[in-house]
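Q: Could you fold this chain for me?
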Amino acid sequence: MSKKFDVVFAECGIQRQTSAPYSPQQNGVAECVNRIIMECARSMILAQGLELEFWGEVVNTVVYIKNQCPTKVFDSKTLQKAWSGRKPDVSHLRVFGCKAFAHVPNEKRTKLESKFMPCVFLGYYEGIKAYHLMCVETKRIIKSRDVMFIEGSKEIGGVFHPEKKKM
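A: Sure. Below is the predicted structure, expressed as structure tokens.
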């Protein structure tokens, strides 16, 4: 409810409308999208056995993926196709929560230390060609471009479990 924001609206000829306090149902479309995002995030966290502390990274990943998908608003086109006329490149998309190994640069290790660190894939960086990862050993969030993914397996509770074979 900023007065400065009201001035900007007035200068642009925009009439500001707000909803009544404690009545989010007045903004139905936004609430529906928020519900879809949170349901996807909950499913992804539970499916990969991640701690709830990573909910922010998961929500960012859901929104990133959602923005790569076609939408009815743009006649079943993706946002990028509607804006630029080009299909988005989705070859970089990976299985959320999969095991990954990030390359450790020469400057950050000695000759005898490992060249890769075990990680869990958490998502993407907008505007940067890098992946969002959590280092398994330190539990710190890192960004890396050079990553090897193990998408056909799960890491649950720190123990490696291969996928169940279909009969």
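A (continued): Residues 46 and 52 are 9 Å apart (CA to CA).
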